[in-house]
């Protein structure tokens, strides 16, 4: 096989795995948008916050350490223990559920029936609040996250491809793990929505609020549930991304990568988020590989948006959305 | 007969029982508009109770008060012998009151069967965790609910559209699916807001028959709003007449038909 083709295949594989992460973040948006019509600007910050909380709990940090020390003149530096990753993940999930509950009871409950733009604004406020809260609780320094996921080049694939093509593919174990976990997560979410009563209730709320109320579904319960699931998805994305590039503010910017995915896949489609994520992941890596050298590189910054824009022009409803034809 | 507390048997042999819902002095305002003005009436177990009146009389508002979508500023709602505190619609639904809407509220993206299955959601006895851990119970419940849904589907003769997405159905069938979803909850009280609006004569006859069958065979207590006087006179045991938010008549179809105020306000208008 010619070298160029081999490189292209390697790039495609890496793109697929990056795409899985984009899809995961996009999924968080889709879940909340479907259930409540809210475009949750805070989704990226939720991933950051979840990752911060996870690291903080694992390292035995005392929440609000700086604040406590400043107010009470104490000199606390951590609990002095370490929490095993699995337990810490569970505890973080509890925090994310508490957050979901608080968002609904303190903010969204009072905004029922408001214009979407108002709700959107509320989530912008929420995003900055959460960012500040994360800083205050766990400190603003860059942290490394190591929950024990395998990392580094996958030697099996490297050797196998070397023996076959004379060129070893560089595929990171972390990417493989992330892909598997994301796939499992998506399968679990689909099973949940198709086969459990709460999943059915969730689909009902996503379809029609009045009808859902009339069959005995509590909208508040469903909203807390969706925000919790979105919190869980954010946590998974935060773990993957955090393990890859450290836990720092830039983690919240993965939300920006989810936007073109949503434009491509449609805001209400779960398969759309997945396929959209993969297309963008592969597209941007391949484009950078093929066209990047010709135009001086750095195409990854804008490629996704341009692709999404072109897509919008021809299919504004997204890949799987229903075409909207205005009645006149 | 209607003023006594005891149950009685109708001409066609159905037993009408004790008062199941009692509305006392209900007043509902929207800003300055009084949609319901100090209205009282009751609904007895097993009967078909009609609410009629010209457009804007406040009929839908009344149904919305009963189903918890609106909370009245004044008055009391007594349900099954107990005074009901202000409730959310989903709580009223779980307490055994099912309803349909004047403008149809279905889950357009779901199939007919899935829509009807949502009618069983108010019986969420298996929690989420229990469903994951103790699959057997959840599965048994699902199968039971499925059987109930199928029975209602047979009852309303919509087998042929079981798997059709509701969004694709014609209006008349949607109304029937909405009725099915309400029925599958096995409600103590069923509220129907203009179940025959916009239907042709044949569809109306079908729907009338279904409503009678539901009441007769399933023993469901029904309150319904309907504009077609012929239908109302045929179906209902007792009729409440509303006009501009006031109650202007209450009694058997014959009594109401002979009421001068009703004739002036409502029948008179309708027969112009
Ligand atoms: N949500 C609401 N907000 C403000 N006003 C309302 C609301 N719902 C009903 N109304 C007003 O209350 C009055 C009664 O309306 P309602 O819908 O109960 O009448 P109706 O008897 O059902 O009429 P129709 O036969 O046209 O369905 C009307 O003046 C209506 O404009
Ligand atoms: Mg009405």
Automatic annotation (TrEMBL), chain A:
It is a multi-pass membrane protein. It comes from Palleronia pelagia. This is Amino acid/amide ABC transporter membrane protein 1, HAAT family. Keywords: Amino-acid transport, Cell membrane, Membrane, Transmembrane, Transmembrane helix, Transport. It holds the Pfam family BPD_transp_2. The lineage of its organism: Bacteria, Pseudomonadati, Pseudomonadota, Alphaproteobacteria, Rhodobacterales. The chain crosses the membrane at residues 12-33, 45-64, 84-107, 119-140, 176-196, 217-241, 261-282, 289-314. Its main location: membrane. One of its GO terms (molecular function) is transmembrane transporter activity.
From TrEMBL, chain B:
Pfam families: ABC_tran, BCA_ABC_TP_C. InterPro entries: AAA+_ATPase (IPR003593), ABC_AA/LPS_Transport (IPR051120), ABC_transporter-like_ATP-bd (IPR003439), BCA_ABC_TP_C (IPR032823), P-loop_NTPase (IPR027417). The keyword ATP-binding applies. GO terms for cellular component: plasma membrane. SUPFAM superfamilies: P-loop containing nucleoside triphosphate hydrolases. Coiled coil: none annotated. Gene3D superfamilies: P-loop containing nucleotide triphosphate hydrolases. The keyword Transport applies. Residues 21-269 form the ABC transporter domain. Keywords: ATP-binding, Nucleotide-binding, Transport. One of its GO terms (molecular function) is ATP binding. Transmembrane segments: none annotated. This is Amino acid/amide ABC transporter ATP-binding protein 1, HAAT family. It comes from Palleronia pelagia.
